[in-house]
Specification:
Elements (H helix, E strand, L loop, with lengths): L3 E6 L6 H11 L2 E6 L10 E4 L19 H11 L4 E4 L1 H8 L6 E3 L7 E9 L15 E8 L3 E3 L2 H9 L3 E5 L11 E5 L5 E4 L19 H12 L2
Parallel strand pairs: 1-2, 1-3, 3-4, 4-11
Antiparallel strand pairs: 5-8, 6-7, 6-9, 9-10, 10-11
Helix pairs in contact: 1-5
């Protein structure tokens, strides 16, 4: 049997179907998860997809963090279950304190939608092992509250521990400190990033490249070989 990867839908989630499709293309079994259901239905990993859950009221991800499904995800993530947060999912992970720091409004105060070059900084997490450290990839980016911030001590700690997973290349699209596009927890099972790898898994859509597919093949290989 192949790995089962769940994708959570909150009110306002936009990219759950794209994430489910990416999981399927990678060769895993996609499982839809509803935010009000605490049961993860025996999935082996979870994706928190992008969008504008609860309309980004209060703060992006602040309400979703308290959805019933998050109680189980937080518990399972701390026990080692792989969790990927994409865009709004990354915001939810910071609100849930599964990842440090916070996401603020883009420094130019505009919504941005573009293809974005990234540098892979950590290729040893559950979600990035199919990449090489230093590899350059291009995936779509679309956000309004995408500016990653943290205090200097936290930033220094992330750098020292190799927990910066991705950095923006060529241009910093939102003012994120130290060009950080994505980070991981210390264990490497929880990863969050603002760009959208699920939109770059087949040549027909997104960037016209498959640079984002490695997220989903990485986790599949880890789960199958576990």
């Amino acid at each position: 049997m192949t790995a089962r990867i769940g994708v959570v839908t909150f009110p306002g989630t936009l990219d759950d179907q794209d994430s489910l499709r990416a999981v399927r293309i990678a060769g895993a079994e996609p499982v839809s998860l509803w935010h009000r259901d605490k049961d993860l239905h025996q999935v082996d990993a979870v994706v928190l997809a992008g969008g504008f859950s609860y309309g980004d009221y209060l703060r992006a991800g602040a309400i979703s963090r308290f959805s019933p499904v998050m109680e189980t995800i937080i518990e399972q993530a701390k026990a080692g279950m792989p969790v990927l947060g994409i865009c709004n999912g990354f915001q939810i992970l910071t609100e849930a304190h599964l990842l440090p720091g916070a996401m603020l409004r883009n420094n130019h105060l505009h919504f941005i939608c573009r293809d974005q070059k990234l540098k892979v900084e950590n290729a040893e997490t559950a979600w990035t092992s199919d990449y090489a450290s230093g590899q350059e990839i291009s995936v779509p980016l679309k956000n309004m509250d995408g500016r990653y911030v943290a205090d200097e001590h936290t930033l220094d700690e992330l750098e020292a521990e190799g927990r910066v997973a991705f950095r923006y290349l060529d241009t910093n699209p939102n003012g994120s400190l130290r060009d950080i596009a994505g980070i991981t927890n210390a264990a490497g099972n929880v990863v969050g990033l603002m760009p959208h790898p699920e939109h770059a898994v087949e040549p027909l859509i997104g960037t016209g490249r498959t640079d984002g597919l490695g997220f989903f093949t990485s986790i599949l290989k880890k789960l199958v070989n576990a």
